[in-house]
């Protein structure tokens, strides 16, 4: 494939830029230097080329000027002999187009590229600084490995060694035998940790069984020890009891001995000892107490007999007390009575004055009779208070009623005036008027008339214009409409006929022309054939034969040598001709054929001309027929077709004119119709107006409409006024009625008051004064104080009477009491007499009280003496019992004997306690049994046995504690086996780690196997390509180093083969020992060899290098360019640079190299 | 008054999950004890539904299970049922029969463990009499059918049989108490509560024959929804079977077609979409997915080379996708069909690949070296991690074939990409 032209149509900074690489010159180099300054777009052009081949990249960065949708790059590609003009746009599908813009498949490019991908193409066939640098490094990385170098130079891959060693490194990180830092080793360690962790927290089933067994054993041991402990402890306790009981038994015996002498001592009741001191005290005091009591009784009796009491006075005690009260009242009233009597007289006098004031001085009335009861008085007062209100209401309601009545009359008058001055339109008239006006307005007659008139004018103009267009025809519309015209079908028939004529004519002409051309060609061919054959045509042959025959005739006549020679010559000429004709028989035949064809052709031409002239006759016939229709528009047209077109045009104009005439007619009719309608509506409106009382006089429709509107509007206004007046009338009527009711209510109230007034006065002494309301009011006010005064007088009178009655009763009682006591009643000083009586009564009372107190004291004393006597009796009995019990005579002796008994009892109690302890310690039911047990063995032995068993019990206690701890621990251990998920979690992690180990192992194997396979594959690649590539690379390297190196060679090393340089000076140099620049050149040499290798078996593709010679000196640059020139004979080489001198250098090194400049 | 019971089997209590997804400690914390959670979920369900009984048709725990913590946990759960008055009917399967913890286990008295001789237990619920027939594996192997040992159905009772069986079994696997579904239908029981096969199946016929499957899958081989059967025996003796999901984590293969995805982000988007779709179909709280990436994409080689990066990026993206975890990524994607011209593709990389495939892989020495390499690492690994390269000679050879093929393709892709940076 070759890039003939690159069209940067809309790509990056380029718009419609073309780089034309031109034709490949046969035998010449195909090297192109593309020169451009920095940023001129060299890289853009390269990218554009790749985008053309492989499609514009998804996220292309060349869209800064032309957006994605507009981007386009094109090229002319030469693939073998074929040439393809292609364009690429940015689209998902169908992005490759041909020159016409039609989508084409990528197959045409893919085929030329032998299936290379974009990346592969870029890596293999484009070189820049960076790839050169990386390539140089790759030589170092590979340590000169030939397989790798050949492969990476062919594929343009630089990082091969690094990639391979990365793979190995990755694998080593995962696993190395016996290494501890690998990932797998780490995981294995974690597995061990987990195992330990599990062992720590888990209890296996087997261990569980062991734990259960252990618990059971511990329980059994503990139980056995407990039993032994119990037995031993019982024995020890038994012995201990006996040991402790032995001294107690001895003590018991000694106490028994102490008690023996007291065996005869009697056993008094227990309380005697405590009672005895009190008994002895009583014995000494009781006799003295009785003597003192007897003496006091005697004294009291004498005192009682000495007190005397006044019994008569005491019998009248109540009356004397009452007298003393009455005396006090009489004493108080004595000075008060005269004062009260004076007050009474004054009160009566005031009452008499009041009565006179009320009833008048002439009437000496009884004040009691003047009083009126309070209810009546209250009613009267209330009525008097209400009177003014009732009266005021009466007068106000009357006034309001009159006002309302007047307003109502006025409203009625106003309403009547409205009807009189502005009578309403009757409903039929109003309806007729509204209907007529509404119809006029709805039908919009006036507007329609305007429109119709305008339309009629327009249509009339249009019709006239259409008529004018018909020129040169002229005449009346009616004549136009009446004109007979050929039908469309007729015209079509004529047209078809004319078309057929034209077709036929054209056919004849074309055939004629074709025949003429053919004829000319045939004539030329005949001429050519004749020329080619030379003069051996039939004519020439005939001429030669004629000459021969003539020569023969002459020879026959002359028979000389000259004639013979002439004849022979003629004969030879004929023979030669015959031979030539024989040899050219085919061509002659062909010539003859050509001549025949020429004849046929000429006949054809004549026939066509004949047919044409026939056709002319038919044509003129058609023209005359058309002419006969006599229509304008046929004018002086050249052909029937044109004439028909003219006729058709005129007919179309006529159609339009006829239509315009019809439209004008319609418009005029419309005008007339509207006018008629207007007249009708005006009549109707006029009638309605007349009926409404406004007869129209010569008004047109708009004026009529206005009149009707005015009339209707006025009517509506007065209707509103009437409605308002009606409303006011109704309001006033309502108001009047309300006032009337008020007045009636006020009158009713007045009457009710009068009745109540009459009723209130009816029972009073001043009922006759009913009409004189002021007089009644005065009486009522005056009478108000009367009852109070009457009560005051009655009270005074009553008190005076009561005082007098009291005094008389007191005196009578005093006399009666004095008589009962037998005292003289002189009636003087009654108060003093009463007082003396009271004193006497008081003295008698005191004497009685004193006597009663003494008598009570004596009774008390007698009771105490009786008790004392009983006590003495009891004491004597108790004393006698104790003395008799002991056979003694004094209580003091008894006391001594009782002490003796008490001592004996204490000793006995001690002895019983001892007996009980002995029983308990010896574990015997009775003292006797206990003593028997004690007697059984020797005490020393027993003590020894006890101490032995006590020590054993202590020992067993310790053992029991240990066993219990063991049992608890075993139980705890079992209980600690929880149902938690610690083990599950560990197992889950362990399982995951095992999976991870497998995963890592697989990864390791993939990496290591891959590396192994790659190494072997590279070796195979080396074997396959070394032969062809090494020679080329060696030559290129020598040239590039300007013979500093004689070339390249290899050296085997283990299972590898190492590339070495052969310096011209002799020896060898490892690639790793070369200078950096030399390594670049070595790499370039290998790349060029790789390219040649590719080209050797495939279609070439353009090789692009982008300024790769920055580090090369001028001579080497020249060599490289020269090498490019050489390679460019195999395939197109494009070198991009911004160095002007390289362009010159290229021209010098490779004559025929072409330079293209980017703007 | 209906008789209701829950039927499960093959819980394999405390048997760990097998997935590299559990490398994530968060996930390990969440589902490390998944079989335990499944058991407690089953017990919860029993309590919620107030069933009358729980039927466990064998393999409650693994044969290799030796931790008494497992036994203790099991006992605790059974105790919960006991307290709620729910009876457990259990037979031993091949795994239970092996287990050492069986002897040490102390279970509540209401748990009925059927012995090595067939037994029948009857219970009455309302008007229904239910006869439950069961038989345990005495040893880990039962090469013959156990069916003849079962009692005949009790007339007038609803008969339920509990059996641990591989049914007709699968080729290449030892048969465990084999018997045919047809024989079971003929036996005359109303419901056969089976266990042993880890995938659920119901065989309708004369009776209900139900293999409930395990309640919690443990690896990608045990993928899909896992359930127990909630069975209601109605008064009219008809039987209603409802499936109830039990697994906390569900394993699923998630196939992703990467065809026409030609950029890394597009591939990630495609995977994310597929995973989200799978998540929305999954009932369990956690989805552990194995991504199977297929289709033709230009990124086929890059996906292989950068599979670790791919995994990290997907996991990062799924961080917000609600309890989705990646078990493993299988890359089956291939590069798009290049229209290779008749003479082959001119790229030396393709040539190298062809050399590798057609020559190097066939060299016996190469195969030998690789075989030695495999053995070297295999023998260095813990015994539990050696199965990846096959259990016998034939499997080993197949493994080598696969290893060589895959490694060759990978290294060529990698050289092309790493050698060129972007290529």
UniProtKB/TrEMBL annotation, chain A:
Residues 1-207 form the YhaN AAA domain. Residues 391-410 are annotated as: Disordered. SUPFAM superfamilies: P-loop containing nucleoside triphosphate hydrolases (SSF52540). Residues 177-228, 946-973 form a coiled coil. The keyword Transmembrane does not apply. Keywords: Coiled coil. It comes from the Bacteria. Pfam families: AAA_27. The keyword Coiled coil applies. This is YhaN AAA domain-containing protein. It comes from Methylobacterium jeotgali. The lineage of its organism: Bacteria, Pseudomonadati, Pseudomonadota, Alphaproteobacteria, Hyphomicrobiales.
Automatic annotation (TrEMBL), chain B:
This is 3',5'-cyclic adenosine monophosphate phosphodiesterase CpdA. PANTHER family: COMPONENT OF ATP-DEPENDENT DSDNA EXONUCLEASE, PHOSPHOESTERASE. InterPro entries: Calcineurin-like_PHP, DNA_Repair-Maintenance_Comp, Metallo-depent_PP-like, Mre11_N, Pesterase_YhaO. Residues 3-199 form the Calcineurin-like phosphoesterase domain. Pfam families: Metallophos (PF00149). Coiled coil: none annotated. It comes from Methylobacterium jeotgali. Keywords: Hydrolase. The lineage of its organism: Bacteria, Pseudomonadati, Pseudomonadota, Alphaproteobacteria, Hyphomicrobiales. CDD domains: MPP_Mre11_N (cd00840).
């Amino acid at each position: 494939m070759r890039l003939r032209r690159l069209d940067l149509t809309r790509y990056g900074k380029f718009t419609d830029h073309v780089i034309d690489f031109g034709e490949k010159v046969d035998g010449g180099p195909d090297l192109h230097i593309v020169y451009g300054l920095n940023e001129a777009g060299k890289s853009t052009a390269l990218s554009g080329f790749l985008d053309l081949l492989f499609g514009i990249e998804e996220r292309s960065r060349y869209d800064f000027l032309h957006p994605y949708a507009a981007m386009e790059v094109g090229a002319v590609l030469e693939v073998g002999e074929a040439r393809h003009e292609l364009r690429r746009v940015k689209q998902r599908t169908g992005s490759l187009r041909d020159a016409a813009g039609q989508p084409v498949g990528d197959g045409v490019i893919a085929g030329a590229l032998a299936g290379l991908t974009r990346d592969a193409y870029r890596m293999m066939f484009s070189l820049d600084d960076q790839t050169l640098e990386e390539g140089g490094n790759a030589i170092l990385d590979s340590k000169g490995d030939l397989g790798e170098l050949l492969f990476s130079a062919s594929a343009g891959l630089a990082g091969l060694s690094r990639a391979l060693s990365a793979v190995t490194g990755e694998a080593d990180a995962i696993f190395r035998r016996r290494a501890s830092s690998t990932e797998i080793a780490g995981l294995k360690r974690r597995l061990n940790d987990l195992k330990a962790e599990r062992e720590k927290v888990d209890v296996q089933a087997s261990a569980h069984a062991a734990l259960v067994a252990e618990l059971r054993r511990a329980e059994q041991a503990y139980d056995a020890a407990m039993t032994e402990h119990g037995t031993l402890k019982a024995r020890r306790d038994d012995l201990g009891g006996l040991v402790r009981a032995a001294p107690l038994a001895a003590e018991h015996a000694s106490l028994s001995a102490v008690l023996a002498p007291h065996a005869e001592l009697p056993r008094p009741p227990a309380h005697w000892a405590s009672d005895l001191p009190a008994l002895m005290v009583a014995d000494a005091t009781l006799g003295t107490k009785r003597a003192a009591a007897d003496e006091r009784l005697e004294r009291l009796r004498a005192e009682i007999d000495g007190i005397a009491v006044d019994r008569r006075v005491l019998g009248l005690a109540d009356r004397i007390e009452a007298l003393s009260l009455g005396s006090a009242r009489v004493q108080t009233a004595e000075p008060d009575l005269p004062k009260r009597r004076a007050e009474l007289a004054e009160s009566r006098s005031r009452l008499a004055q009041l009565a006179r004031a009320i009833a008048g001085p002439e009437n000496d009335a009884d004040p009691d009779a003047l009083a009126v009861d309070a209810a009546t008085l209250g009613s009267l007062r209330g009525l008097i208070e209400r009177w003014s209100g009732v009266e005021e209401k009466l007068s106000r309601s009357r006034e309001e009623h009159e006002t309302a009545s007047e307003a109502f009359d006025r409203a009625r008058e106003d309403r009547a005036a409205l009807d009189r001055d502005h009578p309403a339109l009757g409903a039929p008239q109003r309806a007729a008027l509204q209907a007529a006006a509404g119809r006029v307005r709805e039908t919009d007659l006036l507007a329609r008339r305007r429109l119709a008139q305008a339309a009629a004018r327009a249509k009339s103009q249009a019709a006239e214009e259409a008529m004018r267009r018909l020129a040169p025809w002229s005449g009346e519309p009616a004549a136009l409409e009446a004109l007979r015209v050929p039908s469309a079908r007729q015209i079509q028939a004529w047209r078809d006929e004319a078309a057929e004529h034209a077709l036929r004519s054209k056919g004849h002409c074309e055939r004629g022309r074709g025949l003429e051309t053919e004829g000319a060609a045939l004539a030329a061919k005949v001429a050519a054939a004749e020329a080619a054959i030379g003069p051996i045509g039939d004519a020439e042959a005939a001429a030669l034969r004629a000459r021969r025959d003539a020569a023969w005739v002459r020879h026959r006549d002359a028979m000389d040598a000259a004639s013979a020679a002439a004849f022979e010559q003629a004969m030879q000429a004929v023979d030669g001709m015959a031979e030539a004709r024989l040899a050219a028989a085919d061509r002659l035949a062909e010539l003859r054929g050509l001549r025949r064809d020429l004849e046929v052709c000429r006949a054809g031409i004549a026939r066509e001309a004949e047919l044409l002239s026939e056709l002319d006759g038919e044509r003129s016939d058609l023209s005359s027929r058309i002419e006969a229709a006599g229509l304008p528009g046929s004018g002086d047209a050249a052909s029937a077709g044109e004439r028909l077109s003219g006729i058709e045009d005129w007919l179309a104009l006529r159609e339009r004119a006829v239509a315009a005439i019809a439209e004008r007619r319609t418009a005029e009719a419309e005008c007339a119709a509207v006018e008629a309608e207007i007249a009708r509506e005006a009549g109707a409106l006029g009638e309605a107006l007349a009926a409404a009382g406004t007869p129209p006089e010569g008004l047109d429709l708009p004026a009529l409409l206005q009149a009707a509107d005015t009339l209707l509007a006025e009517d509506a206004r007065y209707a509103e006024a009437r409605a308002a007046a009606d409303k006011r009338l109704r309001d006033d009527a309502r108001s009047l009625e309300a006032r009337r009711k008020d007045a009636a209510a006020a009158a009713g109230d007045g009457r009710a008051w009068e009745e109540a007034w009459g009723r209130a006065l009816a029972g009073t002494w001043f009922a006759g004064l009913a009409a004189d309301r002021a007089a009644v009011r005065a009486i009522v006010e005056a009478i108000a104080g009367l009852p109070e005064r009457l009560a005051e007088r009655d009270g005074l009178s009553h008190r005076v009477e009561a005082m007098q009655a009291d005094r008389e009763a007191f005196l009578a009682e005093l006399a009666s009491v004095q008589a009962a006591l037998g005292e003289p009643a002189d009636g003087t000083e009654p108060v003093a007499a009463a007082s003396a009586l009271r004193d006497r009564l008081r003295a008698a009372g005191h004497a009685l009280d004193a006597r009663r107190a003494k008598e009570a004291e004596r009774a008390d004393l007698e009771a105490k003496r009786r008790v004392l006597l009983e006590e003495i009796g009891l004491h004597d009995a108790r004393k006698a019992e104790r003395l008799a019990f002991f056979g003694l005579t004094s209580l003091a002796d008894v006391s001594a004997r009782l002490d003796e008994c008490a001592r004996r009892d204490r000793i006995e109690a001690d002895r019983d306690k001892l007996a009980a302890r002995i029983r308990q310690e010896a574990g015997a039911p009775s003292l006797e049994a206990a003593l028997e047990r004690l007697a059984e063995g020797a005490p020393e032995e027993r003590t020894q046995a006890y101490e032995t068993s006590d020590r054993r019990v202590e020992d067993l206690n310790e053992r029991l504690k240990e066993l219990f701890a063991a049992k608890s621990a075993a139980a705890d251990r079992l209980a600690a086996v929880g149902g938690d998920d610690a083990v599950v979690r560990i197992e889950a992690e362990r399982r995951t780690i095992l999976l991870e180990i497998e995963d890592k192992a697989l990864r390791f194997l993939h990496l290591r196997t891959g590396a192994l396979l790659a190494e072997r594959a590279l070796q195979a690649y080396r074997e396959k390509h070394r032969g062809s590539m090494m020679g080329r690379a060696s030559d290129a390297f020598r040239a590039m180093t300007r013979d500093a190196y004689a070339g390249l060679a290899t050296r085997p090393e283990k299972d590898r083969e190492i590339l070495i340089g052969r310096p011209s000076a002799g020896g060898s140099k490892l690639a790793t020992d070369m200078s950096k620049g030399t390594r670049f050149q070595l790499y370039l040499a290998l790349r060029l060899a790789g390219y040649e290798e590719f080209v050797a078996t495939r279609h070439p593709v353009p090789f692009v290098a982008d300024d790769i010679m920055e580090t090369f000196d001028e001579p080497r640059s020249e060599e490289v360019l020269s090498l490019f020139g050489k390679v460019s004979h195999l395939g197109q080489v494009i070198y991009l640079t911004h160095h002007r001198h390289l362009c010159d250098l290229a021209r010098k090194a490779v004559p025929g190299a072409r330079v293209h400049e980017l703007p | 008054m209906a008789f209701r019971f829950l039927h499960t089997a093959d819980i394999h209590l405390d048997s760990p999950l097998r997935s590299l997804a559990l490398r994530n400690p968060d996930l390990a914390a969440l589902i490390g004890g998944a079989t335990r959670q499944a058991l407690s979920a089953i017990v919860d369900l029993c309590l919620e539904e107030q069933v009358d009984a729980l039927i466990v048709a064998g393999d409650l725990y693994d044969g290799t299970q030796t931790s008494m913590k497992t036994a203790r946990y099991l006992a605790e759960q059974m105790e919960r049922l006991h307290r709620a008055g729910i009876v457990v009917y259990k037979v031993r399967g091949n795994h239970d029969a092996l287990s050492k913890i069986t002897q040490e286990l102390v279970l509540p008295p209401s748990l009925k463990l059927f012995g090595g001789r067939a037994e029948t237990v009857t219970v009455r619920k309302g008007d229904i009499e239910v006869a439950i027939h069961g038989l345990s594996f005495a040893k880990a192997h039962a090469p013959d059918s156990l069916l003849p040992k079962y009692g005949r159905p009790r007339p007038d009772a609803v008969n339920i049989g509990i059996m641990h069986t591989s049914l007709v079994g699968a080729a290449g696997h030892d048969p465990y108490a084999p018997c045919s579904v047809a024989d079971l239908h003929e036996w005359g029981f109303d419901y056969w509560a089976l266990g042993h096969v880890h995938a659920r199946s119901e065989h309708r016929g004369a009776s209900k024959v139900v293999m409930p499957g395990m309640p919690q899958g443990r690896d990608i081989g045990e993928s899909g929804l896992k359930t127990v059967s909630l069975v209601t025996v109605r008064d009219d003796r008809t039987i209603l079977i409802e499936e109830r999901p039990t697994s906390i984590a569900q394993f699923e293969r998630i196939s992703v077609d990467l065809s026409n995805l030609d950029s890394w982000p597009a591939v990630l988007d495609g995977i994310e979409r597929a995973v989200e779709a799978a998540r929305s179909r999954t009932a369990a709280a956690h989805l552990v997915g194995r991504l199977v990436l297929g289709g033709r994409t230009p990124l086929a080689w890059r996906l292989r080379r950068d599979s670790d990066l791919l995994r990290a990026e997907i996991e990062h993206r799924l961080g917000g996708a609600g309890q989705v975890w990646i078990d493993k990524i299988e890359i089956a994607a291939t590069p798009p069909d290049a229209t290779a011209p008749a003479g082959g593709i001119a790229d030396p990389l393709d040539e190298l690949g062809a050399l590798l495939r057609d020559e190097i892989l066939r060299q016996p020495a190469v195969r030998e070296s690789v075989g030695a390499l495999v053995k070297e690492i295999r023998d260095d690994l813990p015994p539990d991690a050696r199965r990846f390269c096959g259990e016998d000679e034939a499997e080993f050879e197949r493994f080598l074939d696969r290893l060589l093929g895959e490694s060759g393709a990978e290294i060529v892709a990698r050289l092309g990409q790493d050698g060129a940076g972007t290529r």
